[in-house]
Amino acid sequence: MKKFTILLLLIISATFLYSQKPRARDLGVPFRGKTGPLNAITDVKGVEVGHSTIISGSGENIVGKGPVRTGVTAIFPRGKKFSPVYANWYSLNGNGEMTGTTWVTESGFLETPIMITNTNSVGVVRDAVLKWYVDVDWYNKESWWYTYPVVAETYDGFLNDIYGFHVKEKHVLEAISNASTGKVQEGNVGGGTGMMCLGFKGGIGTSSRVVNILNTEYTLGVLVQANFGSKRNLSIAGVPVGLELRDTLNYEFKAPPSSYRKDGDGSIIVVVATDAPLLPHQLKRIAHRVPLGIGIVGGRGSNGSGDIFIAFSTANENAFNRDATTTVQSLPNDLITPLFDATAQAVEEAIINAMIAAETMEGIHGNKAHAIPHDLLKEVLRKYKRID
Predict the structure, then answer these.
(1) What does the longest C-alpha to C-alpha distance in the chain come to?
(2) Is 135 assigned a catalytic role?
């Protein structure tokens, strides 16, 4: 019986390990900075992430029927409760959308979860979140309230029947219901299901960094929906991987509207979370550093790209109060440079994690985005002496 139990545990462990998608560090890709235990945005205590993934059909696109390659991702700063956090946002190139951001800047608070989906589904996701607020009494029995759900998007119309409007209220509720702390699924999941990045398949990626300021450890985590960039600019660990693999597994476009895609088109949404006590103007500065991480891997903020970023702090939990003054803490500006470094480092790694976890996907009309080949990537990194 004991031998049987041990064997069963070994089988279960092997199955679990096999089911885990590899990450960049699993391939030996070197990065700077100390990560949290999960190397994910959920290393910031209280942050929850959930996905709803919609995949169906194949072959020629029939609008309204598919193929469908899309979904929804939900990020809750302090779990599923009304607990506004200090926040701010920034756009490198505004060919995209993130709703609710004007009030985030004006008020200094993010009062809602952050939802990410495809370009044509922003409206239905926003409406579903509003209805969910009513159903769960998000505002704690307040008789009159207003809010502006934060919903961001990137365009997946090269693999997905985007004009078929396949994201429904049930998918939004599924992403919300699935939101939890712990490990975050990456690659072809949630809002990132049909996304492409830097010449290969993209999607959802995450990473984190831990920094020490005044003998206190703070965590900064990042989640990206990566759907941007030109293959020729792809750089991993300082190596021109895109140029080395320029003739390898390029996108395969079989029919319109794929013919209208210009090199470099696409977008990236980045969510930055930290438990460091930062005020809204400091979080704006954090968001300003996101493009540094994108640039490291090859993003250029092209004309056809929507590069929009939001940063929030889970510190100062009692800062939001409608009726009374509050006392809050904040780090001095002179000491937050380590968080700037952490932002760039975590964004860089999150993007590469999205690409490493992504799997080759065929979508509408047989259009295909290939996963970056792990073995060839390691060969290139060895050639440049970045790994052994």
Answers:
(1) 65
(2) no
Torsion angle of the four alpha carbons 328, 339, 21, 6, in this order, in degrees rounded to the nearest 10: -70
Residue 31, H or E segment = none
Our answer to whether residue 19 is catalytic in this structure is: no
pLDDT, position 194? 98
- Ordered domains of the chain (ranges, CATH): 31-383 (3.60.70.12)
Q: Which of 91, 230, 305, 313 is catalytic?
A: 305
Assess whether 307 carries a catalytic annotation: yes
Q: Which two tokens stand for residue 304?
A: 């056809």
Alpha-carbon distance of 269 to 182, in angstroms, equals 21
Q: How far apart are alpha carbons 80 and 171 in whole angstroms? A: 17
The strands making up 114-118's β-sheet, listed across from edge to edge, are 48-56, 68-76, 114-118, 150-154
Q: Using an 8 Å Cβ cutoff, are 42 and 221 in contact? A: yes
Selected catalytic residue, list 267, 275, 302, 313: 267
**One of 161, 302, 307, 313 is an active-site residue; which one?**
307
The percentage of the chain sitting over the pLDDT mark of 70, rounded to a whole number, equals: 94
Indicate the SS3 state at residue 274: strand
* Ranges under pLDDT 70 in the chain: 1-20, 256-260
Contact 261, 253 (CB under 8 A): yes
Look-up of token digits 């103007």 = 281
The one-letter code for the residue type at 251 is: Y
User: In terms of Cα–Cα distance, which of 137, 80, 149, 140 is closest to 112?
Assistant: 149
Q: Which residue has the tokens 């997905």?
A: 160
